[in-house]
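Troubleshooting: if your tokenizer reports a length mismatch, compare your output against this known-good record of 300 residues.
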Amino acid sequence: MTEPKRTVRKAVIPVAGLGTRFLPATKATPKEMLPVVDKPAIQYVVEEAVQAGIDDIVMITGRNKRPLEDHFDRVVGLEAALRKKGDMEKLAAVQHSTDLADIHYVRQGDPLGLGHAVLKGAKHVGREPFAVLLGDDLIDEANPILPEMIRALEQTGGSVVALMEVPRESINLYGCAAVERTGDDGIVKITGLVEKPDPAEAPSNLAIIGRYVLNPEVFDVLERTEPGRGNEIQLTDALQSIATDPDSGGVYGVVLRGKRYDTGDKLDYIKAVVQLAAQREDLGADLRDWIKEFAGDLDA
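Known-good structure output:
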């Protein structure tokens, strides 16, 4: 039986950031390798891509990111030791990250922004649609958004961004989308993108979060996009150009219905660890009991 053709087969995951908000923890350890319960944050992101049918991934890396490559590589000595001990559960966990996907690595070199990082993946992606996943955002696997975004690309022919409803007074912390309805309740058409607007002037309360499914035309636009905010090449600027170009495929949005965990902020990172651990079968019951007890002590 012939396997159905997948529209989106490849993903770009930018991981070249320095992680300065987590210093000194990230002095020698990439921020993407910080543990969320018992897996590094980056593994959750790769697993999300794989669950959406994407098994060809290019990570855009920088200096001091070698632990990322090591994590997804074989560790023959460790596997042999676990096998000798008969610890097959831990052996399976170790091998799982190795066998997840076909992962490639490209150095960004100069830190010229997210748009520049995405552009570094152009040769690997080629002229086909692809996903971009940012490592600071973890999406709850119970309600994945990538499959909906891929469907939206197939249906509309345009690039797609993930959106999340936030309190209007907080929209100045995000990129914001101006939207109009389409014939599909799950998809909106984006007419403009504004970076961190004043809440009083924001066109909506829909924030852009770190998931994109893009047509390869974005590479052509990024090639001619001038540095913007922070003197960096911004992906948002390229998408704004596509959204307002009547000859382009346009840009659409899918609104997240599930949970998003932000691991890019220290407090939100701690919340993410607690929430994900509380959902675990092996940890959840004991942790939830302890949280209630701890909260009671705080009130006292």
